[in-house]
Write a structure and sequence with these properties.
Blueprint: H1 3-6, H2 8-61, H3 63-68, H4 70-89, H5 99-109
Length: 111
C-alpha cells in the first residue's frame, strides 16, 4: 500500500484544520475591519459635531454684532444648519429630513 492510502485520515484532518485556520483568520480580519469602520464613522461624527459647536460658539461670541447685522446672522444660522445636516449625513440618509428631524436624530445620538 502506498503512503497516501495508509495515511489519508491524517491528510484529511490536516486539510480540515488548515481550512479552519484560514477561516478563523478571515473572520478575524472582517471583525477588525468592521470595528475600524465604526471608529472612523464615530470620529467623523465627532469632527462634524465639533464644527457645529465651533459655529455656535462663534455666534454666541458675536451676539451683539449679529443683532446689528441680520444678514450675517442668517448666514451663520444657515452654516450651522448645514453643518448639523452634514454631521448627521455621516450616519444616516438626510436627503428628505427637515431641520427639526435632524435635531431630533442628533439628540438621539447624544449630540
Amino acid at each position: 500500500m502506498s503512503w497516501w492510502r495508509r495515511n489519508w485520515r491524517i491528510m484529511l484532518g490536516a486539510t480540515v484544520v488548515g481550512l479552519g485556520f484560514v477561516l478563523l483568520i478571515i473572520l478575524y480580519i472582517f471583525k477588525k475591519t468592521k470595528e475600524a469602520n465604526e471608529l472612523k464613522a464615530q470620529l467623523a461624527l465627532m469632527q462634524a459635531t465639533s464644527k457645529v459647536e465651533g459655529l455656535r460658539a462663534d455666534r454666541k461670541a458675536r451676539k451683539i454684532e449679529l443683532m446689528v447685522n441680520r444678514e450675517e446672522a442668517k448666514k451663520l444660522d444657515t452654516d450651522i444648519a448645514k453643518a448639523r445636516k452634514d454631521a448627521l449625513a455621516i450616519v444616516k440618509d438626510v436627503s428628505e429630513m427637515s431641520d427639526i428631524q435632524i435635531a431630533v436624530e442628533l439628540k438621539k445620538l447624544g449630540y
